[in-house]
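Q: What would this chain look like folded?
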Amino acid sequence: MKTETVAMILAGGQGSRLGKLTKQIAKPAVPFGGNYRIIDFALSNCANSGISDVGVVTQYQPLVLNRHVGNGSSWGLNRHNGGATILQPYSSVEGEKFFKGTAHAVFQNIAFIEEKNPDYVVILSGDHIYKMDYEKMLDYHKARAASLTVGVMPVPWDEASRFGVMNTDRTDRIIEFQEKPDKPKSNLASMGIYIFNWPRLKQYLEDNQSKNRQMEDFGHHVIPAYLRNSEAIYAYSFEGYWKDVGTIESLWSANMEFLEPNHELNIRNTDWRIYSNNPNTTPQFFTKTAKIKDSMITDGCYIAGEIDHSIISNNVKVGKGSVIKDSFVMPNAVIGENVRIDKAIIGEGAHIYDGAEVVGTESEIAVIGYQEEVGGYSDEV
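A: My prediction, written as structure tokens:
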């Protein structure tokens, strides 16, 4: 059965700039916003855009991510014809098939895509926070008779070197591309969202594999090759909220922005829901000593302390006399009594013992890692 469009979510990255938070889990599996993991946004965008065939490409520390995605049922992607499929490195008669880059990951999964026989393939990063209708971008791609369309938006000049940046002509055709340049010529950044005509991309990947095998990354290799061969490459401008949460500071600031009642992402909009695979847990409980101000508290939490402008994820325990301010606490963390936490990210399953302090600044956020312990030893809350 022919499928017009297949989405490939590249979710195998380590996310080393997140330091302690990704030592044991892949970056797209990092919790966000209390009820979500980062990959939920790409998966939900696919579901809401009517893309039902989704390959999730994993590699680094995939256990939590694989368990979270499952068969895609939380996003309505568990269908008889279509659905979400976990795609991991594997061994074959040719040897080990570990992914060397973004384009190489797609090449290694050509068989999965060919099984669907699509006209188009949508390549997505699994580690950005945004809402986007990929169907509108596909309509734009078709209208331009493009071979490749790149989702773009302007970023601050001092951040441009973190991205692939490009220049376009008056018709929005891309005429120049730089991948993470030291001295960027533009601040028009790639969002890591690509729509390719699948037969043409397949030809590029297979031809290169039979020759020098150097086409491993979309930014470093595929897009420059398309430019050299004068392929029709167009920029699709996105004007909504989009955040690359690839650093501690950006992850913290995105969570703090998430608390804003009029946040541009509009998470409460039922017309474009962000779905997730959440645990079935107990209701939240606030003791008589609890004080909550300008915060999000999710299910399963036990709060006996003070929470101010913070996000507390599911199944977190906060002891009496503790104060948490301007911070993001990930699931299953235990915060003892008389603890002070300010401008910090507390990792999943971490344990902060009685009397400890975890204090950062806006320029240097304090971070406690996955299942890390801080302070002396005492009984849990």
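The chain has a mean pLDDT of 91.
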